Amino acid sequence: MKVVFITPASDLCRMFLYRLGSKVYGQRNSITGPLILGRILKDAGHDVSVYEELYANVDYSKIMDADVYCISTMTSTAPRAYFLADRLHKETKGRVIIGGMHASALPEEAALHADQVVVGEAETVIRDVIEGKITDKIVYAPRLENLDDAPFPDYSLLKTPCSCANVMTTRGCPFCCSFCTTSRMFHPYRERSVDSVMEELRYYKSIGFKYMNFEDDNFTANKKRAKEICRRMIEEDLVFRETFFFGRTDMANDEELLDLLERAHLTRVLIGIESLNQKSLDTINKHQTVEDIEKCAETLSRHKIRIIASLVLGIDDDGKEDIRKSVDFANKINAYQLQPAILTPFPKTAVYEQYEKENRMMTKDWSLFNMAYVTFIPKKMSPWELQIEIIRALKRFYAFLPSFKIGKIFGIGYGLRRLGIWLIAKIGIPGVNLIANFAKGTYIYKLKHMTPEEIIKSENIGTPATKS
Ligand code: B12
Ligand code: SF4
Fold first, then answer.
1. Nearest Cα residue to atom 8 of ligand 1
2. Is the domain of 177 the same as that of 78?
């Protein structure tokens, strides 16, 4: 059977400027689910290809003869996924299967656009679904107990650009922050054997990848294991030019770990700082203190591990001053990048349930759920004030002069990249203001000109609670 996997990207992410921006921001990398499922199907004799809309336009006229279309969903890409599913249903004879993060949270919604929906990790069911042996409209896939049973992602199936291999050595996270989707989707936390990870790295070296990321939600959750992986990378010459990973502030308590990370070139880490307000950290169930954050910043810089400071904007206990304090802190510690994200209540998370109960959701236009839009009524500021804070944060952080300082610390290449982001932020900010002022009917315009109650009414999602 001819099987085509599509990972959609929203209208915004398919724009030329966005693609250019993401090129400046870092290496192009792929989501691994479709490449793993694709390999299972290829090994079973099917003709498989995988497309990602994020990095290139897909020529749909070339894939209209497939027998099955497999579409992945995140929340922000769900509307595009449904559009493609409807179009493929109308214009082809192929079956449409939808899976991934968003479809797993809201399968009934996805089922309106698909022949079948798979909830959860699909490794154990994908072949039977494609070959018609499982026919349920909504298939609840049992989670993968032993991660070593999954094959490695097959990058030869990918027809769109990719310059960095993504490796998941674990699934899930032992913590459970109130806004986090992955710790729920991939529950409980599971680990692959270190041998299997090494074999995968060897495979990427052999096919010529220069860059490799560990995309585990929390790579250093098990420090002993993280150390073992780094140690073997160094011993077996499996070190890549640079490896990005997600970590938590608690990694800074282990000097040996930091030393090994540095030597294995795991030198760019996204740390969820989220907020410098202890009350907010407790509200989101982060299990992290302000002292942890400060210590982490200091220790990582000693080991030349560059921090991408991730902040969550709009936590109930945070006001504008708290957000600005966090941005200034990121500047003070010479964070390599700032990743400010507006708190986004993804379906099935604790914050989503809470805001639903409190009638604080302003929209369910899923395309806005990309962590750049205010989709709920914040507590300590108006929705527009919060929306503007993310822009202010970028402007405050990606300033012209600090780029030179960063260039001096991390090298000229990094300084230039930072200047690129500064330039993009500069073009982006007046752009948003222009839309907010003149593009009537857009969500940004509504945020600026309407009350939350008016927004909710116009987005048709129910009655708002009075803002406290
Ligand atoms: C790598 C990655 C990226 C890469 C590559 C993405 C791409 N090329 O599209 C980059 C960095 C570019 C990226 C971008 C974004 N990402 Co991202 N990303 C990830 C990450 C870290 C790993 C993905 C992965 O490989 N997972 C492991 C594999 C095993 O899981 P999987 O791919 O979901 O597949 C399994 C199942 O979902 C299912 N499945 C998946 N697809 C299909 C399809 C079918 C037909 C079937 C049956 C089953 C099925 O079976 C698979 C095997 O078990 C995840 C976090 C995570 N842990 O998943 C976030 C994550 C998916 N990203 C997220 C977000 C928000 C984004 C952005 C919107 C961020 C932004 N503001 O720009 C963009 C959107 C990109 C887009 N396509 O438009 C969120 C999504 C939350 C949600 N509920 O929607 C996540 C969960 C991280 C988080 N913050 O919680 N991302
Ligand atoms: S630490 Fe990170 S991955 Fe783990 S639950 Fe919290 S946000 Fe999710």
1. 30
2. no
Q: Whose CA is nearest to atom 8 of ligand 2?
A: 180
Q: DSSP letters along 313-349, please?
A: ET-TT--HHHHHHHHHHHHHTT-SEEEEEE----TTS
Does the residue 26 lie in any domain?
yes
Does the beta carbon of 141 lie inside 6 Å of ligand 1? no
27: Cβ–Cβ under 8 A, 6 or more apart, which residues?
A: 163, 164, 211, 213
The pLDDT of residue 404:
86
- Whether 278 maps to a domain, the answer reads no
Contact at 8 Å (CB) between 301 and 335?
no
pLDDT digits (tens, 9 = 90+) for 254-290: 999 999 999 999 999 999 999 999 999 999 999 999 8
Q: Tell whether the model's pLDDT for residue 183 goes beyond 60.
A: yes
pLDDT surpasses 80 at 6: yes
For 288-411, where are the alpha helices, taking DSSP H only? 290-302, 320-332, 350-357, 383-397, 400-410
Using CA atoms, how far apart are residues 235 and 214, in angstroms rounded to an integer? 18
Q: What's residue 210's pLDDT?
A: 96
Output the residue whose Cα is nearest ligand 1's atom 30: 33
By three-state DSSP, how is residue 235 classified? helix
- Please work out whether the CB of residue 176 comes within 6 Å of at least one atom of ligand 2: yes
Given a cut of 80, whether residue 414 has pLDDT beyond it is no
The finding on whether 74 has its CB within 6 A of some atom of ligand 1 is yes
How many domains are there within the chain? 3
**Residue 157 included in any domain:** no
Distance 437 CA to ligand 1 centre (A): 33
Clarify whether residues 198 and 89 are in a common domain.
Answer: no
Say whether both 344 and 459 belong to one domain: yes
Q: Ligand 1 within 6 A of 116 CB?
A: no
Residue nearest to atom 39 of ligand 1 (CA): 100
pTM of the model: 0.96
Which numbered atom of ligand 1 lies nearest the CA of 80? 78
CB atoms within 10 A of CB 244: 22
- pLDDT of 461: 77
- Asked whether residue 283 is assigned to any structural domain, the reply reads no
Q: Which domain holds residue 377?
A: 299-468
